[in-house]
Amino acid sequence: xxxxxxxxxxxxxxxxxxxxxxxxxxxxxxxxxxxxxxxxxxxxxxxxxxxxxxxxxxxxxxxxxxxxxxxxxxxxxxxxxxxxxxxxxxxxxxxxxxxxxxxxxxxxxxxxxxxxxxxxxxxxxxxxxxxxxxxxxxxxxxxxxxxxxxxxxxxxxxxxxxxxxxxxxxxxxxxxxxxxxxxxxxxxxxxxxxxxxxxxxxxxxxxxxxxxxxxxxxxxxxxxxxxxxxxxxxxxxxxxxxxxxxxxxxxxxxxxxxxxxxxxxxxxxxxxxxxxxxxxxxxxxxxxxxxxxxxxxxxxxxxxxxxxxxxxxxxxxxxxxxxxxxxxxxxxxxxxxxxxxxxxxxxxxxxx
Length: 352
Description:
Layout: E1 28-32, E2 39-43, E3 56-60, E4 62-64, E5 68-73, E6 78-83, H1 86-96, E7 100-107, E8 116-118, E9 124-131, E10 134-139, H2 145-152, H3 171-174, E11 182-185, H4 197-206, E12 209-215, E13 238-242, H5 244-255, E14 260-263, H6 265-274, E15 284-288, E16 303-307, H7 314-323, H8 325-337, E17 348-351
Parallel strand pairs: 1-17, 3-12, 3-14, 4-11, 14-16
Antiparallel strand pairs: 1-2, 5-6, 5-8, 6-7, 7-10, 8-9, 9-10, 12-13, 13-15, 16-17
């Protein structure tokens, strides 16, 4: 249960979704009863029928930033930058006037400290520090940094999406939930990509309360686990916020016996981190570094909507903690047999 190899499975490469579904709610939905182990196959739009109207659906309203920047070194060589701490960096600009950000840097030869990088619209960056490929870069954009990134930045798609950039897909729209509000993520909370405005309206009409919380998904979500005993893994931390009104709504629903349904593993982590031992939430913000793996006692979440996750990933471990490792891996094998689409642009699961 704690061995990294216990969370491995073989996935045919052709099942890794490279493009989004034609309609958000048209993706497939595998429903898993975590008590009985029963599996049903539906469409995501059928999710409405699984709610009786008393539930609270908790969504993550983080907004993906076009944080991938393409530039040139002084030698003319291409360099690719991924801004990792966008939210924190904007705070530094507001407080100190310094546009310094932590970034992943990718180039044929790693730039040296002090190197100048040139970007579009005449802006440049200077590398101040380099620790294992994560650099501190001071950008000349200053207070205009946010506006500049919105104009020239590109969507930081996950590394397993491999397709030419000159495609007809508008990733700025499709790799974003319809309820995205708070800028700060470098990866989408992908379970939310299946919701359309019309589907959300159907849920609301049925009586379902939709509550937004925020967790800025970081690039660390793609970092591999490198220890054989998963309990020794240190998970990345991500900024979160739960409003007082969201906490009150969820606490009231739990007191009334209503189910709390989390849309995505990011919502699950935030709720479980922000709750006390009795499952009571308090409004607040900070950094969530909760690593959920089998043995975790869930205090808030009763059901979960999630995508299919990478082998040996912390996300697969979280889902296994919720529904049981063997049960989840059996459901994954069923999904493979049925040719479900996997990962960020793939199909979904509803675990209840």
